[in-house]
Design brief:
The chain has helices spanning 5-19, 29-36, 40-52, 77-84, 109-124, 136-144; strands at 56-59, 65-68. It is mainly α. The longest helix has 16 residues, at 109-124.
Length: 160
């Protein structure tokens, strides 16, 4: 199962906003796009969908930007993936519009895939956005450096 870049970017945007949530400032979408090297126009479309469905709040104006609409502990990853991956079907027979297979009524593949997809989403729904931030300080430092690991301080050794 491979998620689309659309979903990947949406989750990254949520992670970014959760990392910087303590600053209590609206974060411009361009800041998120720059941190991850995401095309700004592409991120804008994703952000609009996340706002429309209550995951984000968009504050207009010169000092505006984005904020999480809910606490990170309340945002379940499976819900985000389900929203951003509307065609979450690994085989065409799961999608009535794409199904051209003549054996679908007699084949167990669709039921197997539906069960697998349900388990996939259920597994993702066992993790909240907050649980993706196990090392929030390091994530924040890397994101603040435009995606680069911060240089070790004098006397510190780098990890091998």
């Amino acid at each position: 199962m491979q998620l689309s870049l659309y979903t990947d970017y949406g989750i990254r945007a949520l992670v970014y906003l959760a990392c910087f949530e303590d600053e209590q400032r609206p974060i411009p979408a361009r800041e998120i796009a720059d941190a991850f090297g995401i095309p700004k126009n592409h991120l804008h479309k994703i952000v609009l969908k996340l706002v429309k469905h209550g995951f984000l709040v968009s504050l207009p104006g010169r000092s505006g930007g984005l904020k999480l609409a809910q606490r990170p502990q309340k945002i379940m990853i499976g819900e985000v993936v389900t929203l951003l991956e509307p065609g979450l079907a690994p085989v065409n027979c799961m999608d009535k519009a794409l199904n051209t297979c003549p054996i679908t009524p007699f084949c167990a593949l669709r039921d197997l895939m539906q069960d697998a997809m349900k388990k996939f989403v259920d597994t993702l729904n066992h993790k909240s956005l907050d649980q993706l931030l196990l090392n929030r300080a390091t994530l924040k430092a890397v994101l603040s450096q435009g995606g680069q690991l911060p240089a070790p301080r004098r006397g510190q050794r780098g990890h091998h």
